[in-house]
From TrEMBL:
It is found in: Nucleus. This is histone deacetylase. Keywords: Chromatin regulator, Hydrolase, Nucleus, Repressor, Transcription, Transcription regulation. Its EC number is 3.5.1.98. It catalyses: N(6)-acetyl-L-lysyl-[histone] + H2O = L-lysyl-[histone] + acetate. The lineage of its organism: Eukaryota, Fungi, Dikarya, Ascomycota, Pezizomycotina. Its main location: nucleus. One of its GO terms (biological process) is epigenetic regulation of gene expression. Belongs to the histone deacetylase family. HD type 2 subfamily. GO terms for cellular component: histone deacetylase complex.
Length: 413
């Protein structure tokens, strides 16, 4: 099966009424143009030369406007009506509303574009879950992970990924557990709020936190906030204490924390909230993740849920960085191996954060609890030493279902 692509140029109609803004409509158009120029889709308006009969080519997924019912799975009626009424506002009023809002702008096309962005995410997830494509990416805007159930904020109107997750569970009863992995440099406060009591969605976020001084300036982005009620333990925050993060920091976080928890959770579907503002060159994120870094994270996540995964665009404001990073992710989705990471070693500051997170997660995950049990680890070390010295036997992890990511790959010898 091929990889799916959801893109609709109508989503570029959402733009600031006056002046410039980092959440620029070109964010999605430059990604789409790079996909076409790489030969993965056909578009006569650009220089793409892909063959629609070629199984290596991407399959187009049509975006549609999300319904009021679908948006209402996450958002309040008052929020829906607030966005809907923007269509009738004049430019002067929209400018005033933008100044009063929390880092988000509006125009008369915001309602339509936000429904398209939400609907595009829904259709992308559904096509993967129904087996029409093996995996997919939704190149959509406005982004969504800051939008809370009650208000737009942080460049976000409706929470695309949250709405898509709930719509997917409603339409596909077999999708009981969903992992949302958010690597946007900002904490997805809206996503956390939406599922804080819900064990059917595991939310893992890697983000700059810095004691709540980095946007969205919410203390609940700290590692000690792990969910409540039935959702206790199903919210995992990895809060970086500083900027300047490198590939090695994220890979270390994935190897030591993200993937062990994700494997134990054993999701039926994976959604990546793919913000590329941690990418090198992004002035808002001030980090240095390379396209290869994003590719490796994608590669690891593809081992989950039998490869059923949808990637949904969130932030990312350097046009070169966002397009190159998205392309690297797409290549992995299509079956290419990620390129080599040049600096795979984590910084001491990052390693400290990860250890603090592991200490917290011991309460909720068997893997973390066993990892922190000194007696258990000591016994295992003695067993390994004994078996090697007496029988020349060494232990290896067992994977009952290797996942599509390991197709045609050598696991061990």
């Amino acid at each position: 099966m091929a990889t799916g692509l959801c893109y609709d140029r109508r989503m570029t109609s959402h733009r600031i009424v006056k002046g410039e803004h980092p959440e620029d409509p070109k964010r999605i158009s430059v990604i789409y143009e790079m996909i076409v120029e790489s030969g993965f889709v056909n578009d006569p308006k650009f220089s793409g030369t892909s063959n629609p009969e070629d199984p290596g080519s991407m399959v187009r997924i049509e975006a549609r406007e999300a319904t009021e019912h679908e948006i209402g799975l996450i958002h309040s009626r008052s929020q829906f009506e607030f966005v809907q009424e923007l269509e009738d506002r004049g430019d002067d009023e929209l400018i005033i509303m933008t100044h009063k809002a929390d880092s988000v702008y509006f125009n008369r096309h915001t309602f339509m574009c936000s429904k398209l962005s939400c609907g595009g995410a829904i259709e992308t997830c559904l096509r993967v879950a129904q087996g029409h494509v093996k995996n997919a990416i939704a190149v959509v805007r406005p982004p969504g992970h800051h939008a809370t159930p009650d208000r737009p904020m942080g460049f976000c109107i409706f929470n695309n990924v949250c709405v898509a997750a709930k719509a997917l569970q409603e339409r596909m009863p077999d999708i009981k557990k969903i992992l949302i992995l958010d690597w946007d440099i900002h904490h997805g406060n809206g996503t956390q709020d939406a599922f804080y009591n819900d064990p059917s969605v595991l939310y893992i976020s890697l983000h700059r936190f810095e004691d709540g001084t980095f946007y969205p300036n919410d203390p609940k982005g700290d590692s000690k906030f792990c969910g409540e009620g039935q959702g206790t333990g199903f919210n995992v925050n990895i809060p970086w204490t500083e900027g300047g993060k490198l590939d090695g920091d994220y890979i270390y976080a994935f190897q030591k924390l993200v993937m062990p928890i994700a494997l134990e959770y054993n999701p039926d579907f994976v959604i990546i909230s793919a913000g590329f503002d941690a990418a090198a060159g992004d002035e808002l994120g001030e980090c240095y993740i390379t396209p290869a870094g994003f590719a490796h994270m994608t590669y690891m996540l593809m081992s989950l849920a039998n490869g059923k995964m949808a990637v949904c665009l969130e932030g990312g404001y350097n046009l070169s960085s966002i397009s190159n990073s998205a392309l690297a992710v797409i290549k992995v989705l299509m079956g290419e191996a990620p390129e080599k990471i040049l600096d795979p070693v984590a910084s001491p500051a990052a390693a400290k954060v990860i250890q603090e997170c592991i200490n917290i997660q011991m309460r909720y995950w068997r893997w973390a609890s066993e990892r922190g049990n000194g007696l258990s680890l000591g016994v295992r070390a003695w067993q390994e030493k004994f078996l090697w010295e007496k029988y020349k036997m060494s232990s290896a992890p067992v994977m009952h279902k290797s996942g599509l990511v390991f197709d045609n790959a050598l696991l061990m010898s």
